[in-house]
């Protein structure tokens, strides 16, 4: 079995990879990261990895980062694909009978047929590129979008980010209406991402009454919270469950 390391931050977008690894039962080493005191980037929570050392691993300096036998993989969808591939390898190497059910679960989190796999890519690209990067990015870190010293425009940048988040929430609710899961009739990595974003909506965007506003989304989140990987990742990251 390859040596696998996940660099993650509690409650960050890397929760998706963390939950998927745990859901699929893949052995891995977790390295918790945090923002450095100087605001210059991420460092390990135990202080053993500096911001500079982390950028040597991943120049962007973000999470998640998955390292598999020295190969560095970044970006949500790429990381999810690598995790699914490692799950299949793990199942095949540890099961003489080649349990197809385990392989199906790993592959199923990326979609179970051509159209569902395309839909997973579509969802993940939008959640990462629009909801996260264009919504929560400016809302939480406006300094990334202007030159140094322009804190006078931070309120406008934050307002634009919040507007993107709220518009995205409406789109998520519309797409989930009448559905049990985001894609197909089984959970996928999209459900894990939507679970995380549900929490961000209340905790980071300070949107009240998420359940009343988005009942279809809440249903998907409730089903995601029943997954062992979600529950264990939440426990390891010190996050409370939404519905207990």
TrEMBL record:
Region (Disordered): 89-108
Domain GST C-terminal: 113-244
Coiled coil: none
Any one GO molecular function term: transferase activity
Record family assignment: Belongs to the GST superfamily.
Protein known as: Putative glutathione s-transferase
Keyword annotations: Transferase
Domain spans labelled GST N-terminal: 1-91
Family annotation (InterPro entries): Glutathione-S-Trfase_C-like, Glutathione-S-Trfase_C_sf, Glutathione_S-Trfase_N, Thioredoxin-like_sf
Source organism superkingdom: Eukaryota
Species in which this protein is naturally found: Rosellinia necatrix
């Amino acid at each position: 079995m390859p040596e696998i390391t996940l660099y993650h931050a509690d409650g960050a977008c890397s929760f998706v990879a963390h939950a998927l690894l745990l859901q699929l039962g893949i052995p891995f080493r977790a390295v918790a990261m945090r923002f450095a005191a100087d605001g210059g980037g991420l460092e390990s929570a135990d202080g053993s990895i500096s911001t500079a050392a982390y950028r040597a691993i991943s120049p962007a300096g973000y999470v998640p980062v998955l390292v598999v036998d020295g190969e560095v993989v970044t970006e949500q969808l790429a990381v999810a694909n690598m995790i699914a591939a490692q799950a299949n390898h793990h199942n095949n190497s540890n099961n003489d009978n080649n349990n197809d059910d385990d392989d199906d679960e790993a592959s199923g989190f990326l979609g179970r047929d051509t159209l569902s796999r395309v839909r997973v890519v579509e969802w993940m690209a939008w959640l990462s590129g629009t909801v996260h990067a264009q919504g929560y990015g400016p809302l939480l870190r406006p300094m990334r979008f202007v030159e140094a010293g322009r804190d006078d425009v931070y309120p406008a940048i934050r307002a634009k980010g919040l507007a993107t988040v709220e518009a995205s929430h409406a789109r998520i609710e519309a797409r989930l209406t009448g559905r049990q899961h985001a894609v197909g009739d089984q959970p996928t990595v999209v459900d894990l991402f939507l679970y995380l974003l549900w929490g961000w909506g209340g905790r980071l965007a300070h949107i009240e009454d998420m359940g009343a506003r988005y009942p279809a989304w809440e249903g998907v989140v409730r089903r995601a919270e029943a997954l062992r990987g979600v529950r264990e990742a939440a426990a390891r990251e010190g996050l409370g469950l939404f519905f207990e």
